[in-house]
Design goal:
The complex is a heterotrimer of chains A (452), B (268) and C (419). Chain A is mainly α and 452 residues long. Chain A has two domains: 2-160, no CATH class; 217-451, MetI-like fold (Orthogonal Bundle). Helices cover 78% and strands 1% of the residues of chain A. Chain A has a two-stranded antiparallel sheet. Chain A is flat and about 80 Å long. The longest helix of chain B is centred in the middle third of the chain and has 15 residues, at 133-147. The radius of gyration of chain B is 19 Å and the shape is globular. Chain B is built from eleven helices and eleven strands. Chain B is 37% helix and 26% strand. In chain B, helix 4 packs across helix 5 (133-147). Chain C is mainly alpha-helical and 419 residues long. Chain C has three domains: 2-52; 56-184, no CATH class; 198-415, MetI-like fold (Orthogonal Bundle), CATH 1.10.3720. In chain C, 68% of the residues lie in helices and 5% in strands. Chain C starts with a helix and ends with a helix. The chains are: A mainly alpha (452), B alpha/beta (268), C mainly alpha (419). At the A-C interface, helix 2, helix 6, helix 7, helix 9 and helix 10 of A face helix 1, helix 9, helix 10, helix 11 and helix 12 of C.
Chain lengths: 452, 268, 419
C-alpha cells in the first residue's frame, strides 16, 4: 500500500511538528498561544514534504526512463533520439506486461526498467519523509523567545492563498502554451493556409511511408462547416425554446409552475453529455432516419440533424437561465409604464422588455453558441467521422471536437501530423470560444451595471 | 378605536358635479392584509382631484385601482365598484386594455422606455393602431410634445435616447406619452417627487393646462402642491378616505379632526 | 373629447386581434417549457425502459457432471487446469438429447454464457471434493437468451430452434430471472451478460478523490485570497477573467492540456486516475472558486468588523468567523462541481482512460476508467446486450448525480443563513 505509506510520510512529520511546537510554547511560558507555534512547525514540515512529493511524481517517469535508457546495450543506446523514444516506449509496455518482449535485450531492459520503477516506489516515501523532517528541523530552530509565530503562520498562509489564486491564470497559460507549441510544430509540416482554407480533410496517414497519400490531407474547412452546421441546428432548437421558456417563466408562469419548471430546465444541464450522446445515437438518429425515409428523403444514420437536435435540447438551460435573470432584471417601472398605456402583456414583453434586455440575451446566446461549438460527447457518439462539405442536415458531418477526440484516442505516434493536427484544431476551438466568452461576459457585465 | 374609525363615514361631499369616474365601497387586500377600507369618491370632468395623506395611507394603492394597475401585483385583490362613464371597470364589459387607454397613468419615477424620444411618444398610438403611416405619427408626436411644452426643447433631438433627458424633461415626456393616446382621465402618482423645484413648477403649470382636456387625479405628499394644482382634495389616513371637499375649504375649514391635525403638521 | 371617443372606437376594434396575439404568445411560452419537459420524460423513459432489465439476469439450472477422469493428476494444478468448458458443454447437451447434428449441438452450447465454465471452476476450487461428482447450480444464460427471455420478443440472434429449446427449459422450470448483483460486482467484460461496473466505480472513486483533494483546498484558498485579501489591480482582474472564462472553456481543451502537459511533458502514465483527477480538478476549480467567493461575499461586513474590533487579525477573522459561516455555501458549490466532474468524459478519453480493463484499479496510479467513459465504451459496443447494460450504467450514474444534488440542496436549505 504505497498510497498509505505516502500519506504517513507526509502527515507523520506534520503531526509531530504540531505537537512539538505546542509543547515548546507551553514549556517556554509567557503569553503565547501554543496552537500558533504548533501550526507553524507543522507547516514547516508539510510544505517541503508536499513539494518533494509533487516534484517526484512529476519527474519520476522521466528519470527512470533516462536511467533505463542509459543502461541499454550499446547497440540500442546509440540510436537517434526519436528512435530511442520509441524503443523506451516499447520497453515500458513490456514492463507493464501489455506486450511480449521481442528479444533478449528488450526483455532485459524491461526487467531493469521495472526494477528501477520499484526502487522509485520505495524511495519516494523516504524522500518525502526526509524533506518533511528537514522542514521540521528548520522550523524548530526558529523557535525563540521573541518569535512571532502567528504572523509567521499568517504570512505563510497568505502566500499559499496567493499561489492558489494564480491557479486559474496558470491553467489558462498552460492551455495556450501546450496547444500553441504543438500547433507550431504542426504548421512546420502543413502550411497554415492549407489548414485554414483547404477543402479536403483525411488525416488518416498511411501505414507504410511509401504508400500513396502517405501524408494525409489537412484542409479543415469541411470540419469547420460540419461544426457550423450542427451548431446552427442546435441553436435553431435552443434559441427559440430557451428564450420562450425564459419569457414564460419570468413573466407568465404562476409561482408553483415556476418552482417546478425552473429546476426541470436546469436538470437538462445536469445530465451528463454521454447520456445525451447515447440517447441521440440510440433513439433520435433512427427516428430521424425513419422520418426522413417516410418523407422520401435519404438520411444518414449518423445525421447532423440528430446530433444537432439533441445538443439543442441540452443547451436550452444555458439560454433560458441567463435570459431569465436578464429579463427579471428589467425594472418593473418600464413594464408598468407600458401596461399603464394599455399594452397587453405580450406587447409589453415584445416591445419594451425584450428590447431592454437585448444585450443580456445576446450574451446568453453567445455563451450557448460557445457551448455548442465545444460540446464533444454528443457529436462523438452521434455524428460521423467523415468530413464532408454539405449544408444538408440529413447528411453525416464531422466536427472539430470529434476530430480532436478521434485523432488523440487510440495508438498515437508523437510528432505525426495527425496527432499535431488535433492540437491545431484545439487551438482554434480555444480561441473561438475564448473570444465568444469574453464578449459575452463583457456584455452581460455591462448590462448588469446598467440596471443595478 | 380602530373599530370606531372603521364606521366613520367620509366627511365632506364625495360627489362631483359632473362625474367621470365613480368609486363606491372600494376595499383592497394584499394577501390577508386589508390596505383600503370602503373608499367612495367621484372624479369630475375637467377637474384635478388631489389625494393627500401620510405615507403608507393607501392613496397610491387606491389610485392604481382606477386603471387596474393593481392587477399586475400578485396577491392583490379588490372589491367594490369603480365605474367609468357608468361602465363597471371590473365587470366583464370593459377590457383592461381599453380601460388603460382611456385612463392613462404617470408614475412616481420617470420611466421612459430605453428608446428614442419619438418612439416613446409614438409607443401608445402605434400600439393601439391610432395612427397609420409616418405623417399621422409625426402629427400626434408633435401635438403631444407641444402640449407638454417639450417640443421646443427636443424638436431637434427626436431620434435621441429618451434616457438622456433631464429628470423633469423625462417626466414631461412620460406625460406626453400618456396623452398621445388621447385618454379621458390621467392618473399621476407623485409625479414630482423625484424632481427639483423648477421642474416641479413646470409640471404643475402643465397639470393646470391639461385640466382643460382631461380629468386628472394626482397623488401627492406635498400639501402645497395639492393646494396649488387641485380643485378638490381627498385626505387619506390608514387606508380610509377621511375627508373630501373643494380644495380651498379643506385647507381653510377642515371638518375632520384627523385632517386638521395633518394640515397643521401635528403628524405627517 | 373628439380624440378620446376616437381612441375608444379604434381600441375596441383592435381588441379581438390583440387578445388573440396575447393568447398565442403565452401559449408559445408554455409550449416551450412543455417541449423541454416532454424531452426529459422521453429521455428518462427510454433509459429506464432499457436500463432496468439490465439489472436482472436470466439463469439456467444445470447439473454439471464432473467425472473424475477429467481431473487427472494431483492437487490444485489438476483442479485449475481441468477442461470445465467441455464438462459444462456435455452436461448442457445432456438436456437436449434431440440435438443431433453438429450445427444443433453448437447452437445448444451457445445458450449458456461464456462465463459459465469459470463459475463452475470457482465452485470446484472452493470445494475440491466436488471433483468426481456432480454440481447443480444456476448458470448465467447467454446474452441473446437473456434478452429473448426478458423482453419476450425479439432476440434476433436466436434461431427458431434455439427459441424452441429456451421454451423447453422454461417449461422444465430450468430458467429464472434474478437480480444481477454481478452488474455491480464484476469488472468489464466483452460478454454483456458478464460485464459489470465495479472497475468503473473504483476508477471514478479514485479520480474524484484526486479531484476533490486538489480542487477543494486550492479553490477555497484562491477564493479567500481574491475575496478577502487581494488588492484590486490588473493581476486580480486577470485572475477573475481567467476564472470566468475557464468555466466556459470546452472540456476537450482541458483534455488537450492534460495530454500535452501531464502525460507528454511530465511523463505521467496514461489511463490513470491521477491524471484524470488532475484534469478534472482544473475544470472544477472555476466552479468552486465562483461558489466560494459568492459564499464569502454573503457573510455580512458587520461580523468581520466585530471580530476585527476585538483585535483579531484578518486571517483569524477569516478562519474563525467568515469561513465557518460560509462553509455551507462552499460545500454546496463543491458538491455541484464534483457532480459536474462525475459526469465528464471527453477530457478523460484523451488522457487514455478508455482502455478495456478487466481488473479493479487499486489506487490512483493503476490504469482505470470511470463510469461515464464506461457508458461511452459500452454504447460503442456492437453487441445488442450492451444496450441495456449501457442504460443500466446510466441509471447508476444518474442515481449518483441525483444523490449529490439532493445533498447540495439539503445543505443549502438546512445550513445556509439568509443575512
Amino acid at each position: 500500500m504505497p498510497t498509505v505509506l505516502l500519506f504517513a510520510a507526509v502527515l507523520a512529520p506534520v503531526a509531530l511538528g504540531y505537537f512539538f511546537g505546542r509543547r515548546w510554547a507551553l514549556g517556554a511560558g509567557g503569553r503565547r498561544v501554543p496552537g500558533h507555534f504548533g501550526i507553524f512547525v507543522g507547516l514547516c514540515a508539510l510544505l517541503p514534504g508536499l513539494a518533494v512529493l509533487a516534484l517526484w511524481l512529476a519527474l519520476e517517469e522521466r528519470v527512470v526512463t533516462a536511467m533505463a535508457a542509459a543502461a541499454l546495450p550499446a547497440g540500442l543506446a546509440g540510436l537517434p533520439a526519436e528512435r530511442l523514444a520509441l524503443v523506451m516506449n516499447q520497453v515500458a509496455n513490456i514492463a507493464a506486461g501489455t506486450v511480449a518482449a521481442q528479444s533478449e535485450a528488450m526483455a532485459a531492459a524491461a526487467a531493469h526498467y521495472r526494477a528501477l520503477g520499484g526502487y522509485a516506489q520505495l524511495l519516494m516515501p523516504l524522500a518525502v519523509a526526509a524533506a518533511a523532517a528537514a522542514g521540521f528541523m528548520a522550523g524548530r530552530r526558529m523557535l525563540r523567545a521573541d518569535f512571532a509565530a502567528r504572523s509567521a503562520v499568517e504570512r505563510i498562509v497568505l502566500a499559499l492563498f496567493m499561489v492558489c489564486s494564480c491557479a486559474a491564470i496558470l491553467t489558462t497559460v498552460g492551455i495556450v502554451l501546450s496547444v500553441l507549441f504543438e500547433t507550431l510544430r504542426f504548421f512546420e509540416k502543413v502550411s497554415p493556409a492549407e489548414f485554414l482554407f483547404g477543402l479536403e480533410w483525411s488525416p488518416q496517414t498511411a501505414i507504410r511511408q511509401d504508400q500513396v497519400g502517405a501524408s494525409g490531407s489537412f484542409g479543415a474547412v469541411p470540419v469547420f462547416a460540419g461544426t457550423l452546421l450542427i451548431t446552427v441546428i442546435a441553436m435553431a432548437v435552443a434559441a427559440p425554446l430557451g428564450l420562450l421558456s425564459a419569457v414564460y417563466l419570468a413573466e407568465y408562469a404562476p409561482r408553483r409552475v415556476r418552482a417546478v419548471a425552473k429546476p426541470l430546465l436546469e436538470l437538462l444541464a445536469g445530465i451528463p453529455t454521454v447520456v445525451y450522446g447515447f440517447f441521440a445515437a440510440l433513439t433520435v438518429a433512427p427516428l430521424v432516419r425513419d422520418g426522413g425515409a417516410w418523407l422520401g428523403l435519404t438520411a444518414a444514420s449518423e445525421s447532423a440533424l440528430a446530433a444537432g437536435l439533441v445538443m439543442g435540447v441540452m443547451i436550452i438551460p444555458f439560454v433560458s437561465s441567463l435570459s431569465d435573470d436578464v429579463i427579471s432584471a428589467v425594472p418593473a417601472a418600464l413594464r408598468d409604464g407600458s401596461l399603464g398605456l394599455g399594452a397587453t402583456r405580450s406587447e409589453t414583453i415584445r416591445r419594451v422588455v425584450l428590447p431592454a434586455a437585448l444585450p443580456g440575451i445576446a450574451g446568453s446566446l453567445l455563451l450557448a453558441v460557445s457551448r455548442a461549438i465545444g460540446e464533444t460527447m454528443i457529436v462523438v457518439m452521434a455524428a460521423g467521422l467523415a468530413a464532408r462539405l454539405t449544408a444538408n442536415p440529413l447528411d453525416a458531418v464531422t466536427t472539430v471536437t470529434v476530430q480532436i477526440v478521434t485523432l488523440l484516442t487510440g495508438d498515437q505516434e508523437f510528432d505525426s501530423a495527425k496527432t499535431l493536427a488535433a492540437f491545431a484544431l484545439g487551438l482554434l476551438l480555444f480561441l473561438v470560444t475564448l473570444i465568444m466568452n469574453l464578449i459575452a461576459l463583457f456584455i452581460v457585465r455591462r448590462y448588469r451595471e446598467n440596471y443595478e | 378605536m380602530v373599530k370606531a374609525e372603521h364606521n366613520t363615514p367620509t366627511a365632506g361631499d364625495i360627489t362631483a358635479a359632473n362625474p367621470h369616474m365613480r368609486a363606491r365601497g372600494v376595499n383592497v387586500y394584499y394577501g390577508g392584509k386589508q390596505a383600503i377600507f370602503s373608499v367612495s369618491v367621484d372624479i369630475g370632468r375637467n377637474e384635478v382631484l388631489a389625494m393627500i395623506g401620510p405615507s403608507g395611507c393607501g392613496k397610491s394603492t387606491f389610485l392604481r385601482c382606477l386603471n387596474r394597475m393593481n392587477d399586475t401585483i400578485p396577491n392583490c385583490r379588490m372589491d367594490g365598484e369603480v365605474t367609468l362613464d357608468g361602465d363597471d371597470i371590473y365587470g366583464g364589459k370593459l377590457d383592461v386594455v381599453e380601460l388603460r387607454a382611456r385612463v392613462g397613468m404617470v408614475f412616481q419615477k420617470p420611466n421612459p422606455f430605453p428608446k428614442s424620444i419619438y418612439d416613446n411618444v409614438a409607443y401608445g398610438p402605434r400600439l393601439h393602431g391610432l395612427v397609420q403611416g409616418r405623417a399621422q405619427t409625426d402629427e400626434i408626436v408633435q401635438k403631444s410634445l407641444h402640449r407638454t411644452g417639450l417640443w421646443a426643447e427636443v424638436k431637434d433631438d427626436l431620434g435621441k435616447a429618451a434616457t438622456g433627458l433631464s429628470g423633469g424633461q423625462q417626466q414631461r415626456l412620460c406625460i406626453a406619452r400618456a396623452i398621445a393616446v388621447s385618454p379621458e382621465v390621467i392618473l399621476m402618482d407623485e409625479p414630482c417627487s423625484s424632481l427639483d423645484p423648477i421642474a416641479t413648477a413646470r409640471i404643475e403649470e402643465l397639470i393646470d393646462e391639461l385640466r382643460r382636456h382631461y380629468a386628472i387625479v394626482i397623488v401627492t405628499h406635498s400639501m402645497q402642491q395639492a393646494a396649488r394644482v387641485s380643485q378638490r382634495t381627498a385626505y387619506f389616513h390608514l387606508g380610509r378616505l377621511i375627508e373630501v371637499g373643494p380644495t380651498p375649504e379643506i385647507f381653510t375649514r377642515p371638518q375632520h379632526e384627523l385632517t386638521e391635525n395633518y394640515l397643521t403638521g401635528r403628524f405627517g | 373629447m373628439n380624440d378620446a371617443s376616437q381612441t375608444v372606437s379604434v381600441v375596441r376594434a383592435g381588441l379581438h386581434k390583440r387578445r388573440a396575439a396575447e393568447r398565442r404568445f403565452r401559449l408559445a411560452g408554455a409550449a416551450a417549457v412543455a417541449v423541454a419537459a416532454l424531452f426529459i420524460a422521453f429521455l428518462f423513459t427510454v433509459i429506464v425502459k432499457n436500463g432496468l432489465p439490465g439489472l436482472w439476469q436470466t439463469r439456467i439450472l444445470l447439473t454439471v457432471e464432473l467425472p473424475a477422469a477429467e481431473f487427472q493428476g494431483r492437487g490444485e494444478a489438476a483442479l485449475k487446469g481441468a477442461n470445465y468448458r467441455k464438462m459444462v458443454r456435455q452436461s448442457l447437451l445432456g438436456l437436449f438429447p434431440d440435438a443431433t447434428t453438429r450445427g444443433e449441438r453448437r447452437a445448444a452450447a451457445k445458450l449458456l454464457s461464456e462465463g459459465a465454465p469459470y463459475q463452475v471452476r470457482r465452485a470446484v476450487l472452493a470445494d475440491p471434493d466436488l471433483a468426481g461428482g456432480a454440481l447443480t447450480l444456476w448458470l448465467p444464460a447467454a446474452s441473446s437468451v437473456d434478452i429473448f427471455h426478458k423482453s419476450g420478443a425479439g432476440g434476433g440472434k436466436l434461431s427458431d430452434w434455439q427459441k424452441q429449446k429456451v421454451a423447453q427449459l422454461q417449461a422444465a422450470g430450468r430458467l429464472r430471472t434474478v437480480f444481477h448483483r454481478g452488474f455491480f460486482l464484476n469488472n468489464d467484460s466483452r460478454s454483456p451478460e458478464l460485464a459489470g461496473i465495479r472497475g468503473a466505480l473504483a476508477g471514478t472513486f479514485y479520480t474524484l478523490l484526486v479531484t476533490l483533494m486538489l480542487s477543494f483546498p486550492v479553490g477555497v484558498a484562491a477564493a479567500c485570497y481574491l475575496e478577502e485579501f487581494a488588492p484590486r489591480n490588473r493581476w486580480t482582474d486577470l485572475a477573475e477573467i481567467s476564472i470566468n472564462n475557464l468555466a466556459a472553456v470546452p472540456s476537450v481543451v482541458f483534455g488537450l492540456l492534460g495530454l500535452a502537459v501531464f502525460i507528454n511533458f511530465f511523463g505521467l502514465p496514461r489511463s490513470v486516475p491521477l491524471v484524470g483527477g488532475l484534469v478534472l480538478s482544473l475544470m472544477t476549480l472555476p466552479t468552486i472558486i465562483i461558489a466560494a467567493r459568492a459564499a464569502l461575499r454573503s457573510v455580512p461586513l458587520s461580523i468581520r468588523q466585530a471580530a476585527l474590533g476585538m483585535g483579531a487579525s484578518k486571517m483569524q477573522t477569516l478562519f474563525h468567523h467568515v469561513l465557518p459561516l460560509s462553509l455551507p455555501g462552499i460545500l454546496t458549490g463543491t458538491i455541484i462541481g464534483m457532480a459536474q466532474a462525475l459526469g465528464e468524459s471527453a477530457p478523460l478519453l484523451m488522457t487514455g482512460m478508455v482502455a478495456f480493463l478487466v481488473n479493479t484499479p487499486g489506487g490512483v496510479l493503476d490504469p482505470a476508467t470511470v463510469l461515464p467513459v464506461q457508458v461511452f465504451l459500452w454504447a460503442d459496443s456492437p453487441e445488442r446486450g450492451f444496450v441495456e447494460k449501457t442504460s443500466a450504467a446510466i441509471l447508476v450514474l444518474i442515481g449518483f448525480l441525483v444523490a449529490m444534488n439532493l445533498l447540495a440542496v439539503i445543505i443549502r436549505a438546512k445550513f445556509q443563513k439568509r443575512w
